Amino acid sequence: MDSDRWRSLYRVALIVVGGLLVVSLSPLVLVGLHGGSADWARVAEIYQALAVLVAALALVGVMVQLNLQRQETRASRLETHKNLHQQLRLLAMEDPLYMACWGTFEMGQATTFDQKRQFQYLNLLFLSWLTSQRVGLPTWDLHVVLPGLFAGESGRNYWRLCRDIWSSTYTAPPEKALFDLIDAEYQKAVLAGEPRTTDELLEAMRHTQGEAPLRPR
Predict the structure, then answer these.
(1) Quick one: average pLDDT of 173-183?
(2) Rounded CA gap, 34 and 9, in Å?
(3) Residue 92 carries which DSSP code?
(4) Considering just the CA atoms, what is the radius of gyration of the chain in Å?
(5) Higher confidence at residue 110 or residue 124?
(6) Phi, then psi, of 152 in degrees rounded to 5
(7) How far apart are alpha carbons 204 and 207 in whole angstroms?
(8) How many Cα atoms are found within 13 Å in the side-chain-facing hemisphere of 187?
């Protein structure tokens, strides 16, 4: 986005500078074409016309710059809002007292503090994929990640609750492509059978890694 903005400003600057050069040199060019003599009244008329053209170009340049500044300001505000939203969720994930502030906010089948932490974490994870998709950054290999994620009950719980929200909210082509990919993997997981519980997944991690299981609080 920054490179596109600078390219646009560079083109506007070239147009304005070129126009100024044309206005400045036009009297000399006209005199030279007439062998050192010219109809100065005619030259003045042409000069005024060119001056008006340059003024119009300068006005266009100012309008383009203002529009770019407006877009940059909006992008900055959105980034600030996103960061604030993320910090609030992280606070709730770290402290049951803050999680309780969400009250009876629907989190699917999440009832315990750890289940709600999982829900909030998954929300941040899915939104990070959405952000990457929007700006054209590479995301993880979701064809590999999503089957494992939806093999667990927390992943399915999150998408079952948020699926309709995503479908109606994120409708731009890149967002819709991400939604279709996620939902297709979710449907495959549902057809494959019942999800594994968090306890089962932690137990599997213990056997795989040779570590003591991490039990939810």
Answers:
(1) 94
(2) 37
(3) H
(4) 30
(5) 124
(6) -100, 155
(7) 5
(8) 7
